[in-house]
Design goal:
The chain is of the alpha+beta class and about 350 residues long. The chain has two domains: about 160 residues, Creatine Kinase, Chain A, domain 2 (2-Layer Sandwich); about 100 residues, no CATH class. Helices cover about 45% and strands about 15% of the residues. The protein contains 14 helices and ten strands. The strands form two sheets. It has an eight-stranded antiparallel sheet. It has a two-stranded antiparallel sheet with strand order 6-7. Helix 13 packs across helix 14.
Length: about 350
């Protein structure tokens, strides 16, 4: 398979489509956790209960009506190979828990992959909407549409005092996780990020790496999300996050302007050294690739590099993950083989820009 065909088949819309403030915000995500009233949580239930949950959700979401045009396709985790599940996880379409630990789990995916509904993960239902750029409220609107559509025929586990009941106490209440994935090289290079993260934490938000909890901020990519799910409405939680992200966008742009004024030649040199590495390397580890891709994307945004797609960082940060590399290779790869394959894929992808 050619690389161009592989990319066209592999990338999700959030990776290939530009959205508002997409020079800094790569994607916006809303996730709603819900459980069915009549069944035990997935940590305790049996196979027949799991199958009943899948059946109920599937029947509701393929029923003619308001969201019929989304064409949701059901994927059963027990029927997928480990590599297939890993690729879905690397694309942020399913969680590591659903990929690795879920028994009798499933996922409903829209054709654009903007909608992903995980079934029998930590909760019976996790509705996820993933949009390109800074579209947090738009993602919330779609998630609420799906949520309301389900609730018309499904009885959720709900308590009048605390709200939606969830497997993990940290999700009780609204059950919402709102997150924005951001590229913040300016704040990292000016070392402002070290004081900003603690300040964000004090606002009831959390800053994590590209794959959420426990992951590294590779390539200067950070996820900013809410911690509180109780005591505020879903709309208020999303608005609070939107306000903080708007400030981060402003601070990142100011940091880039400061770098251009005080360290322009050094920054330009860094960008083109990284660009040269990616164009010519024959073996590259994931951390070095992430750092160089971040530099190149910054160079594109600041006008140093022309005729290279702005989506290059979005695409290659995902396509150079172990699952994708092995899928493209057609089979398992040892660590060094992955580093060689990663370098080849990056070179070929950059060469496509000059065609």
């Amino acid at each position: 398979m050619s690389l161009e065909r592989f990319i066209n088949q592999a990338i999700s819309s959030w990776m290939s489509t530009e959205g508002p403030d997409s020079d800094i915000v790569l994607s916006s995500r809303i996730r709603l956790a819900r459980n069915l009233k009549q069944y035990r949580f997935p940590t305790l239930f049996e196979k027949d209960e799991a199958e009943a949950v899948i059946d109920q959700v599937k029947k509701r979401l393929v029923h003619p009506g308001e969201i019929e045009d989304k064409r949701l396709e059901l994927l059963l985790m027990d029927e997928l190979q480990p590599l297939q599940k890993r690729v879905l996880m690397e694309k942020h379409l399913i969680s590591p828990h659903l990929a690795e630990n879920s028994t009798h789990g499933a996922c409903l995916l829209s054709e654009s992959e903007e909608i992903s509904i995980m079934i029998n993960e930590e909760d019976h239902i996790r509705i996820q909407c993933l949009y390109p750029g800074f579209q947090l409220l738009e993602a919330l609107q779609m998630a609420n549409t799906i949520d309301n559509w389900l609730e018309e025929e499904i009885d959720y586990a709900f308590n009048e005092k605390v709200g939606f009941l969830t497997s993990c106490p940290t999700n009780v209440g609204t059950g919402i996780r709102a997150s924005v994935m951001m590229h913040l090289p300016g704040l990292v290079l000016t070392q402002q990020i070290n004081r900003i993260i603690p300040a964000i934490n004090q606002l009831g938000l959390v800053v994590r790496g590209i794959y959420g909890e426990g992951s590294e901020a590779l390539g200067n990519i950070f996820q900013v999300s809410n911690q509180m799910t109780l005591g505020k409405s879903e709309e208020d939680i999303a608005e609070d996050l939107k306000s903080v992200v708007s400030q981060l966008i402003s601070q990142e742009r100011s940091a880039r302007e400061a770098l251009a004024k005080t360290s322009n030649i050094q920054l330009e040199d860094r960008v083109f050294r990284s660009y040269g590495t990616l164009l010519n390397c024959r073996i590259i580890e994931s951390k070095e690739a992430a750092r160089c891709l971040s530099d190149v994307r910054l160079g594109i945004d600041m006008g140093y590099i022309e005729n290279v797609s702005e989506n290059i960082l979005n695409e290659l940060m995902i396509l150079t993950q172990p699952g994708f590399l092995q899928q493209y290779a057609g089979g398992p790869l040892r660590p060094q083989e992955r580093d060689i394959r990663r370098a080849t894929l990056i070179r070929e992808r950059l060469q496509m820009e000059s065609k």
